[in-house]
Amino acid sequence: MKRLSWDKPLIYLILSVGAILMLLPFLWMLSTSFKTIAESLQFPPTWIPQHFTLENYKIVWTKVNFPRYIWVSTVVTFFTLIGVLITATITAYALSWFHFKGREVVFVAILSLMMVPIPVYVVPLFILVQSLGWVDTFYALIVPWTVNIFGIFLLRQHFRSVPRDLYDAAVIDGCGRLRFLWQILIPLTKPALVTIAVFEIIGSWNAFMWPLMVTNSDHMRPIQVGLAYFAQGESTNYPALMAASTIVILPLIILFFLAQKQIVESYSRSGLKE
């Protein structure tokens, strides 16, 4: 008889407990968003609202300019994502399929920029943006972040995993470099592109420090900056704060669950050799 193995059940148990502990804060946030102020302060606390109300969401949507904040974040996220996908695809293609002198040196130099913390270059970047007259505009929120070093690295690893024979066969059939990139490489690396897109959307949607520096007016504030100002004004209205946080985080949760399969596949293939 086979010996019973307790490895898998133990692993599943640990993962299940970890998942429950990670979900508890989100469930508490969602539950509190439907409570009244008095119920949110009572002790012992309750997980299920005794007096279910949507007034908190109404306060968030009408008391502050939340629709405008969401619109600004959506525009910034969309155009930043387009820029990142274009720059990452072109750069990764050049560094993986073109042979030129100093290619590896260029790649290492680009990769080393990942080790530079944001506070090191954020002040010179702000001075540059200010000299261009971009403060409190969409240009300041979008243009500096249209290049993603991690996206270049991940996409290069996927491009290098495509067999060279595939390119030779495409050239024999009359396929040019750009056509090979668009019709062959990009369809083969969709998981990597989806992964880059998901992380870029999360990063742009959650951006706080830089938008806080380059925006002055209320109509140019993205969602995280608007949420911070709302939290200052409603510091004791915990249900309204939880409702605002739920509105902010819900699109990202939905996006992650829709794209988790591509993310796992992308990381599992990123280590393949050429």
Radius of gyration: 24 Å
How many structural domains can be distinguished in the coordinates? Answer: 1
Principal-axes shape call: globular
What structural class do you assign from the helix and strand content? mainly alpha
Label the CATH architecture.
Orthogonal Bundle
Strand tally = 0
Bin the strand percentage.
Answer: under 5%
- CATH C-level: Mainly Alpha
Note the total helix count.
14
User: What separation lies between the terminal Cα atoms?
Assistant: 44 Å
Relevant CATH superfamily: MetI-like
Output mean pLDDT: 83
* Helix/strand order, N-terminal first: HHHHHHHHHHHHHH
The main sheet comes to: none
Stretches where pLDDT falls below 50 for ≥5 residues? 270-274
Task: Output the CATH topology.
Answer: MetI-like fold
The percent range for helix content is: over 70%
What does this structure look like?
By secondary structure, this protein is mostly helical. It has a single domain, classed as MetI-like fold (Orthogonal Bundle). Helices cover 73% and strands 0% of the residues. The chain is built from 14 helices and no strands. The longest helix is centred in the N-terminal third of the chain and has 32 residues. It is globular. It starts with 6 loop residues before the first helix and ends in a 5-residue tail after the last helix.
Reconstruct the topology from this structure:
Layout: H1 7-32, H2 37-41, H3 55-63, H4 66-97, H5 103-112, H6 118-131, H7 138-142, H8 149-160, H9 164-172, H10 177-188, H11 190-205, H12 209-214, H13 223-233, H14 238-269
Descriptors for this entry?
274 residues, mainly alpha, MetI-like fold, 14 helices, 0% strand
